[in-house]
Specification:
The chain is α+β, with helices and mostly antiparallel strands. The chain is 28% helix and 19% strand.
């Protein structure tokens, strides 16, 4: 899923040629009427999104049926969840119990962070370590980027230890509440996913050391683009963890690959989008798969999305479940690697715009 035109990896000086340290600063400079060459990303015609095919109806899961429904409703929930995990790897959760005010408050605080001056944001830039407690910047990684991304970001690790920038003033409080509430949803979903696999509800949590599991809050800022067909917010990728929860403001931009086609994901207001990550695919030995998705930009208004990846503890070595392998009579498809090392591998040049899981797949599987 690479761009049609490939450039040499960008150097530190290349990003400075835009005379802006962020895409927000660049678009607000008043000098950008077209996409600079550093940001040029053109999709192949066959990769355009298709939302009109009835085979691509987005699955919606009513979370309240899991937590407070009747036994029959709960059974139907688990059936629908399994089908969504098998067919899509993505689903939309409604009636999840996270108040609209909590979600809107988090989006507002992230917008306030992006509105800080570049000088104020500098102290939160972090290093190139993917596991920095707090990290903000633009694009992806200028050391390996072939195309700069039309996005700025702020990422914080919120579990097992909570971290937050100290500005803007309300960010920490909003992030703490948002992190706790989304983790509650993720915990219940993980139990349900265990059950859909025919395992005990606490199986995945125990196997993945969930109590010490890694949770991040990653906010992305995509300003309006003068030529949205010539830039990309985030290129096609899969997520590194077990499950990712995502919310956004009123601007869409998420596209998901389903049955070989790209589909626009038009999320319902106040819903949470959930997708499975690479560690779930390894654990289930391909029964459930992480799915390629991307973020496109528009020429109308700024989009803000907040993704909350949840994974094992960083030292957990993830391998296919021995219980599932024995039951299905299958050999393992993946070799083991610690979650920390997997994240590093995923964000390295070796995996740039390539399926990172291919590095772990056992030959012939």
């Amino acid at each position: 899923m690479a761009p049609t035109s490939v450039h040499a990896p960008l150097k530190e000086a290349d990003i400075q040629s835009t005379k802006a340290s962020s895409i927000k600063a660049l678009t607000e400079s008043g000098s950008v009427t077209s996409v600079p060459s550093e940001y040029s990303f053109t999709l192949n015609p066959n990769d355009q999104a298709d939302s009109n095919d009835p085979d691509h109806s987005i699955p919606t899961i009513d979370f309240s049926l899991l937590t407070s429904g009747s036994p029959e409703q709960r059974s139907n929930f688990l059936h629908d969840l399994r089908k969504a995990c098998e067919d899509w790897g993505f689903f939309m959760v409604i009636n999840h119990g996270v108040e609209e005010s909590v979600m809107k408050g988090m989006i507002d605080e992230c917008e306030a962070f992006f509105n800080l001056t570049d000088e104020e944001k500098k102290e939160f830039q972090g290093t190139r370590n993917a596991l920095d407690p707090i990290k903000c910047g633009t694009s992806f990684n200028v050391a390996i980027d072939k195309v700069l991304l039309w996005r700025d970001f702020i990422k914080v690790i919120s579990h097992p230890e909570f971290n937050s920038p100290h500005k803007p003033a309300g960010f920490s409080e909003a992030a703490l509440e948002f992190s706790k509430r989304t983790r509650e949803v993720a915990t219940e979903l993980l139990k349900a996913i265990s059950e859909t696999l025919g395992l005990e509800s606490d199986y995945i949590a125990n196997a993945m050391n969930w109590d010490q599991g890694l949770q991040m809050v990653a906010a992305n800022y995509y300003p309006a683009c003068p030529q949205p067909d010539r830039a990309i917010g985030i290129p096609p990728h899969t997520d590194h963890g077990l499950v990712t929860l995502l919310i956004q403001n009123q601007m869409g931009g998420l596209q998901v690959q389903h049955k070989g086609k790209w589909v626009n994901w038009n999320a319902m207001p106040n819903s949470i989008v959930v997708n499975l990550g690479d560690q779930m695919q390894v654990l289930t030995n391909d029964m459930y798969k992480s799915v390629w998705h991307r973020a496109v930009v528009n020429n109308t208004a700024t989009r803000i999305s907040i993704a909350v990846p949840h994974g094992p503890s960083v030292d957990t070595v993830v391998v296919p479940s021995p219980e599932l392998l024995e039951r299905e009579g299958l050999p393992p498809s993946y070799s083991g690697i610690s979650y920390k090392d997997y994240i590093t591998l995923q964000q390295s040049a070796k995996s740039y715009m390539k399926p990172c899981l291919d590095n772990l797949r056992i030959h012939g599987k």
